[in-house]
Amino acid sequence: IQSLVHIVEYGLTGDEIILHFDMITRLLYFTDYKNGIIDSVSEDGTDRKIIKKSGFVKDVVSIGNEIVWVSQGSTILNWINNYDEDRVSRALNIENWKSDSNLCLTVANGIDKNIQHPCQQNNGGCSHVCLLSGKGKVCGCPPGLVLSNNSLNCTLLGECKSDEYRCYTGECISSHSRCDLKKDCPRGDDEDPVKCLHYTPNLCPKSQFLCHDKTKCLDKKHMCDSVKDCSDGSDETDCIPQHICDLTTEYQCTTGECILRQFLCDDNLDCANGQDELNCLKNSCNNITEFRCNSG
Fold this sequence. Notes:
It is found in: Membrane. By secondary structure, this protein is mainly β. The chain has one helix and 18 strands. The protein folds into five domains: 1-115, Neuraminidase (6 Propeller); 122-155, Laminin, CATH 2.10.25; 162-202, Low-density Lipoprotein Receptor (Irregular), CATH 4.10.400.10; 205-239, Low-density Lipoprotein Receptor (Irregular); 245-279, Low-density Lipoprotein Receptor. The chain is 2% helix and 27% strand.
């Protein structure tokens, strides 16, 4: 009985290690699920190399010079040429798989060409990529194209707006709907756990208020004005309780405060929402013979 040989003894921290041994090149490819680095090493433990840093790699295989991998919960098939110095990766979206299921990879060598399969004739009817799935087949599209409703033809994607996110299936949804724990895309890719881990949403400018349902950015002057501008009414919550002001000497802000009337239109924001500086008529004074009061 041969004794065990340790060929990798450092750099592995996760509970799940994915392995693939290439019988032709005699290289072992492996990845630590937690650190997301794809490594290779010779069968004697020498010549260890980092192939790619990808994050949450679920499975990896090698086909000739190509290294192919998939990530946790993703329907994107990634690959690179192992001998390409730039290590530029390419991708293919396998849209007919659900995003919450894990793709598994395998390499088949020495396939009998006499065996019939759905992709053998006319590319399975697919306009671009035909892939075997169980006893059937599914069609796939390269990046920039989306599978049409007939599940056979790939078509060009329309443009999404700058504040929108494109689902894998082609739909455009609001960017605020990404990573909000609610699946808005048909395949749920807007809640991809890997991408959401590093996703920072575009927040509203400082001068605006983001509705709690993330559907609208609202000018702060519309907060606490007794009008629900947000669909969830969040612009009218947590407002300062209003009380009665002395209207002879005071002005009541829509946010509830009472300020002296002399503070109206004095170029200082005294109301929380700046209402005291709205709709002000600025008179033109003669700097030699006239003096401008704080009231304007």
